[in-house]
Amino acid sequence: MTVFVTDITERRHFEEELSRQNSQLESVHQISIGLTAELNLEKLLESITTHASELLKSSGGGIYLYREDQDKLELAVAIGTQKPIAGNFLERGEGLSGKVWELGKPLTVEDYETWEGRAAVYNSISFKAVVGAPILRGEEFLGVLTLMAEPPKKFSQHDVALLELYAVHAAVAIHNARLYQNVQSRMNQLEMLYETSKTLSGQYDLNVLLQSIVDSARKLLRSSTSGMYLVSNNALRLTKVTEAGYPVGAYLRFGEGMAGRVAQTRLPIRVDDYSSWEGHASIYNGIPIHAVIEVPMLYKGELIGVLTADESGSSKRKFTEEDEHLLTLFASQAAGAIHSARLYSETRRRAQEFAGLYETTLDLSLQLDLSTVLTKIIERAKKLLDALCSSISLYDPTQANLELVASIGPDLPPGTRRQLGDGLAGRVAESRSPIIIDDYSKWEFRSTLYEKIPYGSMLGVPLLYSGHLLGVLDVAEIKPSSRVFNEADMRLLSLFAGQAASAIENAKLFDSLQNSHEELSLAYDATIEGWSRAMDLRDKETEGHTQRLVKRTLEIAERMGISQQELIHVRRNVLLHDMGKLGVPDHILLKPGALSAEEWKIMRQHPTHAYEMLSFVEYLKPALDIPYCHHEKWDGSGYPRGLKEKNIPLVARLFAVVDVWDALRSDRPYRPAWSVEQTRAYIIEQSGRQFDPHVVEIFLKMLDESPDPL
Ligand code: C2E
Ligand code: SIN
Ligand code: SIN
Ligand code: FE
Ligand code: FE
What we know:
This protein is 48% helix and 18% strand. With 710 residues, it is α+β, with helices and mostly antiparallel strands. The protein folds into 4 domains: 30-183, GAF domain (Beta-Lactamase); 202-346, Beta-Lactamase (2-Layer Sandwich); 368-512, 2-Layer Sandwich (Beta-Lactamase), CATH 3.30.450.40; 539-705, Hypothetical protein af1432 (Orthogonal Bundle). Helix 7 packs antiparallel against helix 8 (370-385) and helix 11 (545-559) packs across helix 17 (650-664). The longest helix has 53 residues, at 487-539. The protein binds ligand C2E, succinic acid (2 copies) and fe (iii) ion (2 copies). The site of one succinic acid has 10 residues, from helix 3, strand 5 and strand 6. The site of one succinic acid (SIN) has 9 residues, from helix 9.
């Protein structure tokens, strides 16, 4: 500044001016020290403006900050005037601040109202003197600091220079505050990240977890939407989206769309306008998506999915590199949380499986029929391992090979035999240890027999019973299933195989008992039939008498609801009914006339003889009721014990009617056969006396439906 000194007054004035200027400079210095201490950007801007206004004795002022994203100035603070703040933007060259930006130098006007360069936003506001200085940090333009003054005050060259200098200090303070704010907001974000992952890692319900991940990601990036793809069947499945209207459940192949590329490269991708992006996936057609950022979710190098954030609707926002870092960091936390949650639900599933295993075992141990047991085992194994197929091969020690006995899913026909060492079952049998195969079609030891069946992963375990190989149990996947059985599956199936083996062993044992029992039964029955025929011969019974009794008795027994199991015994009962007559001498049994009292006494002993003869034979005990009780009468007047009504065994009550009917309809040495009518009348007459009335009723009905063949 050049000043000519003409007189003392002027000199004093000059000295005063100089000291004022010095003190102003000192103020600028002091203020700037104060300013740099203020780290809150809003407060700082306000304090910069206030101090500048005081310094230059102005009536008000404000700061326009440069918005890089819009390439415009935005009014950030205004004091002492009624400047409209919200949405107050100036283009480069617009108004005083726009000009300052354009020139890169301070500018002052004396009467803004009449100034041709004034900005339209200020048409209704009257400013007189206005000065503006660029806020520059080196080359970097941060904004414009403006001041206004009421007349008569005008801004001098000195004021302009002072503001210019002041604005440089302000630039430093603003830069620092912004840096700090960045750090601060990053710290806040990190804190939120930490909080989020804390909630996440405590969150084990997978569905709730996935929802909370996308919700958190959306909040973290302050984006319109966040979504997540999970890797599934070698593709990406859009699993969760914070907003409605997205194609949740849709698949993208690896390489397809943004997520597909992220999955393939395992690198984040940012796109500013998705709707016009060349890699646009068709599943998003019709959704107005603009900026998108997608990052891989990796857990220990394994791709779990892809996390996304996008801007939709009218948002012009673009994602930055910092957004990318943040989302990447979050995605790795999320991947860890998903991994834990999956592990947990896997563990829980196993626990449930073990409960299932227990029930299964209980049920299996009740099964005694071998083929039922085998079917149940493969059904249970399939369910337990959630597999597509299961089969059992049994080891045949006599031929030293394996026979396929039961299977679910595509397989060879049951009965197919294979040598030990052939294929999975053959190898499991040979080694007596479990084998897991990731992909059967690529397995070097696969059996040629199975070439045509597209097995995927397989798991085979030996069925061992106290060290003996009973066979091999396996479960299998069919392609395109990509599920691979793991160690946990193997332990579970081995455990189950232990139970299965003992069920098989029991059933085999029972089967062989059953077989020998059946053989014996056949022998017994043949014997009984032989006795029965011998007795008929001795009795001079007409041909087929006993067979008729058997047929009739079984018929009525069935009608009365006697079980199939018991009918076997009913039959034997009938065959043996007059067994006791073996103890009656020929001269009595075959006597052509009426019996004497003495003879009758002997004759009436025949049921007791039967009891005495048969009760020693264990297996004939259930065949005693008829031989012992067929001459008891409903009214208690029968023999040998005089039993009454329901004290007489049911089968004996049935038989009594059938026997008397047949006896009366047949010729006897002591009388000729009776007619049907006569016999029928007799049976009816004896109902409630000799016979159980209910039995008589059913017997007569039966006769109507299938008349007596005699
Ligand atoms: P059975 O000949 O097989 O007769 C079985 C039952 O049929 C008799 O049991 C009786 O309830 C009935 N029944 C048979 N024939 C007649 C009959 O002519 N009139 C009537 N009302 N009922 C008849 P029961 O009476 O306890 O006799 C048991 C067995 O004793 C008979 O078996 C038969 O072997 C023998 N028996 C009974 N009565 C005579 C008889 O008069 N002479 C001889 N030789 N044997 C007789
Ligand atoms: C302008 O820069 O055109 C408006 C003046 C002010 O900032 O008050
Ligand atoms: C099977 O066991 O079901 C077929 C696979 C094999 O044993 O090789
Ligand atoms: Fe008898
Ligand atoms: Fe008889």
